[in-house]
């Protein structure tokens, strides 16, 4: 509480709200009080959620341009990146805090209603990787999308190949040397308005 001495025009001393009044060298001085940090220590649940958020952001940040394409069909009144982040937060983290990690088998880098393909596989060859699949499921003119990612270096490579589902094979001339790559594929509709969910094909080190 501040006190006014000698009437309304007198010297004010004390605290009023977040300011303090005092005299120095015969002058009235007023200063604001420093703000105190009343934040409580985060709970274990909050710390776990923060770690999950950091893991997913580290995963998706290098993929922003890709996600604008591959999550657009699954997006309604929201940004594709936010939809991708929400899905992977819910599904692609495993373990208990503080040892949570990315569950690569559950990571989704494309989302939509188009059909995937049966019998999808990838084989690493000296000059790249060869994809094979069955063309019996889905529309024959859907086209292949291939994605490869090195998390430690945030290297992302992807290709909207234009290769139709009916071809059942595609060779990607990508340099996989000296790194561990995570590889996915998906199929995109010919009119580019839809895409399948991504399929994780595994982790490969050359």
Query: What fraction, in percent, of the residue positions are helical?
Result: 10-25%
Which regions are unreliable across 5 or more consecutive residues at pLDDT < 50? Answer: none
The number of distinct β-strands equals 13
What's the Cα radius of gyration? 29 Å
What is the averaged pLDDT score? Answer: 91
Order of helices and strands: EEEEHHHEEEEEEEEE
Structural class: alpha+beta
Which shape, going by the Cα principal axes? elongated
Q: Please summarize the sheet with the most strands.
A: 4 strands, antiparallel
Helical segment tally? 3
Strand order of the largest sheet: 1-2-3-4
Percent of sequence in beta strands: 35-45%
Straight-line N-to-C gap: 73 Å
What do these coordinates show?
17% of the residues lie in helices and 37% in strands. It is of the alpha+beta class and 206 residues long. The protein has a four-stranded antiparallel sheet, with no helix packed on it. Strands 10-9-12-13 form a four-stranded antiparallel sheet, with no helix packed on it. Helix 1 (44-60) crosses helix 3 (80-91). The longest helix is centred in the first third of the chain and has 17 residues, at 44-60.
Question: What is the secondary structure topology, with strand pairs?
Answer:
Elements: E1 2-4, E2 12-16, E3 19-24, E4 27-32, H1 44-60, H2 64-70, H3 80-91, E5 93-94, E6 101-102, E7 118-125, E8 128-134, E9 143-150, E10 155-164, E11 169-172, E12 180-188, E13 199-205
Antiparallel strand pairs: 1-2, 2-3, 3-4, 5-6, 7-8, 8-11, 9-10, 9-12, 12-13
Helix pairs in contact: 1-3
């Amino acid at each position: 509480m501040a006190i006014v001495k000698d009437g309304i025009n007198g010297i004010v001393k004390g605290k009023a709200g977040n300011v303090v009044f005092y005299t120095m060298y015969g002058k009235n001085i007023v200063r604001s009080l420093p703000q105190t940090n009343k934040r409580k220590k985060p709970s274990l649940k909050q710390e776990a959620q923060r770690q999950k958020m950091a893991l997913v952001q580290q995963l998706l940040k290098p993929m922003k341009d890709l996600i604008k394409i591959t999550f657009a069909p699954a997006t309604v009144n929201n940004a594709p990146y936010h939809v991708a982040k929400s899905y992977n937060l819910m599904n692609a983290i495993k373990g208990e805090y503080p040892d949570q990690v990315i569950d690569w088998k559950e990571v989704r880098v494309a989302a939509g209603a188009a059909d995937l393909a049966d019998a999808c596989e990838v084989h690493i060859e000296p000059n790249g990787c060869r994809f094979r699949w069955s063309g019996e499921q889905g529309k024959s003119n859907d086209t292949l999308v291939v994605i490869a990612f090195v998390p430690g270096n945030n290297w992302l490579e992807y290709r909207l190949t234009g290769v139709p589902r009916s071809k059942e094979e595609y060779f990607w001339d990508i340099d996989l040397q000296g790194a561990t790559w995570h590889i996915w594929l998906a199929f995109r509709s010919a009119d580019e308005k839809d895409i399948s969910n991504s399929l994780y094909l595994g982790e490969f080190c050359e």
